[in-house]
Amino acid sequence: MNDTASLDSTSASVIDALGFSAEMSELRERIAAWVAGCDDEMREALEWQFMSGSKYFRPLTIFACHRAMYGAAPIPERVIQSALVIELFHNVSLVIDDIVDRSPERRGRATMHTKFGELSALMTSGYIVAEGYLQLGDDLQGISLFSELLKRLGVAECLQWRLRRQPLGYEDWWHIAGEDTGSMFEICACLGDRSGKLRTYGGLLGRLYHGCDDVADVRGLPALGGGGKEDLRDGILTLPASLAIADDTVSAAFCRPDPTDADLEIAKAAFLKALPASEAKLDDIARQARQEARLFATDTAALDALIEQTRALSGR
Amino acid sequence: MTSTGPDSSGPAAEEGRQDGTGGLAGSLAGLLEGYARIMSQIAGGGPGAADGARIGSTAALIEAGSIASGSALRYSQRLTELFARHQSALIEAIPAHLSGQDLPPDRARAEVESLRRFLREVGETAMLEARRLDHELAQLGEAVAQGVADPVSAEDFQRRAEAKL
């Protein structure tokens, strides 16, 4: 095992550019130390999950939001601890997603439940959540924010599943993306700024991330982990889907409970056709996020960099 | 968060748009802010007093009044612009509904989308202005608090007692 959790190569340059290399090294060392101190029964699974490459985009969002509000002063202990816990909770969401989606691999590597079995993956997830709260100690604001996050993520997943294969539209996508990925980044922003002023910025950044993921999936890009085919077959309301199903023929194919190959081809072609409109929506969200950053932040450079990095994920 | 208009007329465009009622409201809001700055100086606050410097209570009340008025005007301006942007889509939908005719499903869905977008943007506009007002008043409150706090001198940090080691 390495003595630090490894960093995804694509994120390293952004972290360097924003000047958070020291904080990120500290975070990776803390994750490694935490894994090393966990129960023997769980350690192998935790090493598998945490010691592979990670984008650390959520901790980076926390640090960037802190700097945007308080300048280049050292990141306080409480904020670094929040970054550790967000990475723990994010990994819980990945493990659960992989179990539910029956995904054998994530980013070219066996998923936790494939490698260690479902029981182990589920129990390890519970263990991580409990550890996360323990790590927060007396940070009551942090505890409250993480509780909000877990509740909203749970609701969002149920909502997204319940609303599958329905003739909905962009407004529904906006709501789902805001509660799913949006809630994650909203909480990251709040954990970083500790005032709530960047909450809306975080929500927009999360929607942007969610939308870029949707678009990259349609393009077949591996940028954020893939999943386009599964989304299509399940009738998940992605950003391109929300725009494409305004057409009745596409809507009928998309909403069919047991879609034929022909239905899937119709939907796929329509989603590809909706990519320019999807990109325009993403541009609009990015513009709103930039404007929101300027409302309260004293230094918007790091916030702008996050937007640019996220926007590039659609693979335009 | 502000609006996400369907026709490239989001907040950035709103900022630059100074026509009609919106422009008038924007000008009035600017005038009020200028007036408040002058009154604040007369009342002893000095230029930029609300930006972290000390401010007297009279000046603070005048400034608070102008901030609130400016905010109300800005909110009205944004609502007017928002309505103008969605007006054609909303008006287009009314005759069809009044005549009771059944719309094709895709058109009905498009109309519902338009209405929902309009309502969301109304809510977002209100939230945005409320957060701006809250922020500006909090800054003013901080300046007032600094105005009544005892000045801190370097001597306050000079320990006289000796440490018992």
UniProtKB/TrEMBL annotation, chain A:
Keyword Magnesium included in the entry's annotation: yes
Matches recorded under InterPro entries: Isoprenoid_synthase_dom_sf (IPR008949), Polyprenyl_synt (IPR000092), Polyprenyl_synt_CS (IPR033749)
Entry's Gene Ontology molecular function annotations: metal ion binding; prenyltransferase activity
Keyword Cytoplasm: no
Coiled-coil residue spans: none
Cofactor: Mg(2+)
GO process annotations (BP): isoprenoid biosynthetic process
Database matches in Pfam families: polyprenyl_synt
Taxonomic superkingdom: Bacteria
SUPFAM superfamilies in the cross-refs: Terpenoid synthases
Keyword entries, A-Z: Magnesium, Metal-binding, Transferase
Protein family per UniProt: Belongs to the FPP/GGPP synthase family.
Protein name, as recorded: Polyprenyl synthetase family protein
Source species: Palleronia pontilimi
UniProtKB/TrEMBL annotation, chain B:
Species of provenance: Palleronia pontilimi
Superkingdom of origin organism: Bacteria
Region of interest (Disordered), residue spans: 1-25
Entry protein name: Uncharacterized protein
